[in-house]
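thought: fold this chain, then report.
action: predict
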Amino acid sequence: MTPYRIAVVDDLERDRAWLAEKLADYMARERLEYELTAFASGEAFSAALEQGQRFNLVFMDIYMDGITGIEAAQALRARDMDCKLVFLTTSEDFMRQGFSLNSAHYLITIPFITPARIAVSVSRPIGSLRPLVSTRGKRPVN
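observation:
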């Protein structure tokens, strides 16, 4: 089976590492194959999109230096409406904007995210996905 392609976009290394650990625990428990790509900025994520990278699921911080998570999510949506998007942030300030970008979840972050909330934020979007076949956007035909 083709692994799920997951991206984590956060300017804080400790938050990227924390989420990577929680995702690894969940994916191992559910026996799901995945590839995780971490981005330290919205610019790096946007550049990857411009180079044709695609993801099934993106966890996006909102408050980042340079391009904000909202702006990076807009770049994502300009190229891909199927990717599931989960915002991770410290504030409810951008909740309305986040959901207007068709986000699957909007989570107020550490220390409020429990392993159960991580599981829900992964299981619901993944349950509605089919793995990507290639980075060119081809999908399996039913």
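thought: worth noting. The CA atoms of residues 27 and 33 lie 7 Å apart.
final: tokens above.
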